[in-house]
Structures are given as C-alpha cells and as structure tokens.
C-alpha cells in the first residue's frame, strides 16, 4: 500500500450479507482479521435498501474491536452504487475503514469512487482520504488493466481475486469455485491470474487477497486452495463460514519456526552490520550465510508474523 496507508492484517476476510441481521451480529464475535459487510451479490436487489440501513446501524453500534471494517458496494454498472456509497459513508464513515469495489474493469471506476468519497468526507468533516478502497478483479478486462487499477488512487489498499465471477467471465468449464476445471490436468488453471494479481500488488506495495471457497463444509479443500495462494505470497483469503476463519488465520500466518528464524536473522544482521558488530556485509548465523537479501526475506516473514500478533 502507499507509504501513507497503515498495513492491516487481512489473513481472514469474513463476508457477511448486509441483509442478514443475525449474521451481522454474530460476525462481531468471530476471530477474523477483517469483516466485509456485503451489499453486492449476497444481497437480493429488493433487500438492498434495508441492507444499507442494517450496515450503517451495525457499524455504528457494533463491537468490532480492531479488525478491518469494509463494506462491499455494488459495481458501477448497476443502479445501486451511488446510493450504497452515500448512505454508508454519510451514515457510518467514522466507523468504516474501506469500501470494496467489485468487478473493477478500469482505473476510471476507481477514480470515480475516490472523487465521491472525497466529496462525502469533506462534506461530513471526516479526514479526507481516510477511507481506503479494495479493488476486486473479477473479469478479463479487469485483469488486463490491473496495473492501472492498482495505481488509480492513493486510497487503494488491496487487490482481491473474485474467482466465481472470473470463472464465469472467461467461460471456464467448471462450477466448483477455486478447484481445477475438469479436463485440465497440466497444472493450476489459476496460476496466471494469481501471479498477475500478485505482481501488480507487489509492484505497487498493495496487499493481495484470495477470494471465496464455496464448499463451506470442505475445510480440507479450503486449506488446500488457500495454501496455494499463501505459498505464492498472498496475504489472506475470504471466509464465508466461521469454520474457515481459523484455517485462514493459520495458513496465511508464517510457521512459528520460520517467524522465530526471521527475527533471529534480523537481530543478527542488525548487530553485525553495526559498528559494534564489525560493520560486516555478509555474515554467518549458525551454518547459514545471511546478507541484505536475507534481511529482506526475513522482513516479509517477520512483518506477516507481527501483523498476526506472533
Ligand atoms: C466473489 O465475489 C467472486 O466472484 O468470487
Ligand atoms: Mg464476485
């Protein structure tokens, strides 16, 4: 994310339909790093006005602790976006961290949201620029434009993969979100998409989040699919059911051993490169030679571990 934006843990990003008061209540007691209250595809068109009101109410009165609080609005091709943004931000902007914009296809769509947010923040007397934007990439055009989208506004904090809409948009022959399409047996059908999103995010200092896994009873499947994006470097994944949260928090945290080792590397490197330690460049830590590149790798693991409270 841009230097000015705070880094927030997002190992588990829990989705809650804005139309379901029971789930909105229950989500407050869950251990997810982020909660996103949805106005888009999990809310029926006729339920959207009531969902906006529910969301404003729970943001203002709920016990959300330190987790990231996001609302997913409808995408700009619908009739609902402007009202989603105005009602939610005017009503609860002081208790909101980010808006998630789904089905982003062009940088202009992010810029339009930025302008609207700036107007509302100014009119309401909120700090201008406080509310971040999470851009969900869910189709081929969005993926092709992802670099422009990533740099469209200093508000952007994350790039998010939307596998279900993406599979539909490219005519993938499968109905099981996140799993390999039957007939494709030469690798991971999502590898290019995940890598493309990861490169865009890392090139522009943003977080990158994997999307939902819909087989909510299959925790092994969730762990397997999450493990792939975590191995590449993704920061977290959506959770649709409370049982997925613990798995996400585990999969996207570093191993305790790796975390401890990273902290040792940082301590040793800091000491040996200082005057007191001999101002060395490459140094030995046990049997391992460490240098500036090792420090950078250790910083990644340590940063994720510290964000996860290790
Ligand atoms: C999520 O919005 C998805 O389309 O996978
Ligand atoms: Mg979607």
UniProtKB/TrEMBL annotation:
Keywords, sorted A to Z: Lyase, Magnesium, Metal-binding
Highest taxon of the lineage: Bacteria
User: Which cofactor is recorded for it?
Assistant: Mg(2+)
List, for all copies, the residue spans of the domain called HpcH/HpaI aldolase/citrate lyase. 16-242
Specify the signal sequence span: none
A GO biological process this protein is involved in?
oxaloacetate metabolic process
Q: Which Pfam families match?
A: HpcH_HpaI
Q: Which GO terms describe its molecular function?
A: lyase activity; magnesium ion binding
Annotated InterPro entries: Aldolase/citrate-lyase_domain (IPR005000), Citrate_lyase_beta/mcl1/mcl2 (IPR011206)
Native organism taxonomy: Bacteria, Bacillati, Actinomycetota, Actinomycetes, Propionibacteriales
Know the name of this protein?
Answer: CoA ester lyase
């Amino acid at each position: 994310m841009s230097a000015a934006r705070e880094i927030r843990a997002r190992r588990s990003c829990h989705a809650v339909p804005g139309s379901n008061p029971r789930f909105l209540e229950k989500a407050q007691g869950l251990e997810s790093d982020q909660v996103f209250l949805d106005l888009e595809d999990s809310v029926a068109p006729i339920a959207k006005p009531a969902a906006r009101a529910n969301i404003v109410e729970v943001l203002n009165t709920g016990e959300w602790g330190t987790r990231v609080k996001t609302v997913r609005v409808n995408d700009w091709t619908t009739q609902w976006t402007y009202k989603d943004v105005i009602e939610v931000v005017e009503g609860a902007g002081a208790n909101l961290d980010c808006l998630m914009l789904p089905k982003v296809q062009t940088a202009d769509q992010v810029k339009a949201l930025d302008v609207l947010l700036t107007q509302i923040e100014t009119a309401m007397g909120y700090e201008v620029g406080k509310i971040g934007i999470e851009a969900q990439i869910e189709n081929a055009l969005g993926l092709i434009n992802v670099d422009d989208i990533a740099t469209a506004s200093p508000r952007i904090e994350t790039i998010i993969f939307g596998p279900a809409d993406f599979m539909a948009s490219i005519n993938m022959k499968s109905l099981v979100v996140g799993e390999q399409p039957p007939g494709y047996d030469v690798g991971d059908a999502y590898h290019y998409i995940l890598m493309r999103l990861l490169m865009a995010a890392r090139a522009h200092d943003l977080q990158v989040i994997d999307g939902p896994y819909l087989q909510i009873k299959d925790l092994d499947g969730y762990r397997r699919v999450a493990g792939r994006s975590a191995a590449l470097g993704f920061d977290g994944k959506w959770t649709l059911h409370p049982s997925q949260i613990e798995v996400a928090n585990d999969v996207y945290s570093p191993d305790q051993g790796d975390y401890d080792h990273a902290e040792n590397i940082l301590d040793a490197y800091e000491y040996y490169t200082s005057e007191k330690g001999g101002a060395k460049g490459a140094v030995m830590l046990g049997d391992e030679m460490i240098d500036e590149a090792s420090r950078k790798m250790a910083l990644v693991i340590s940063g994720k571990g510290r964000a996860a409270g290790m």
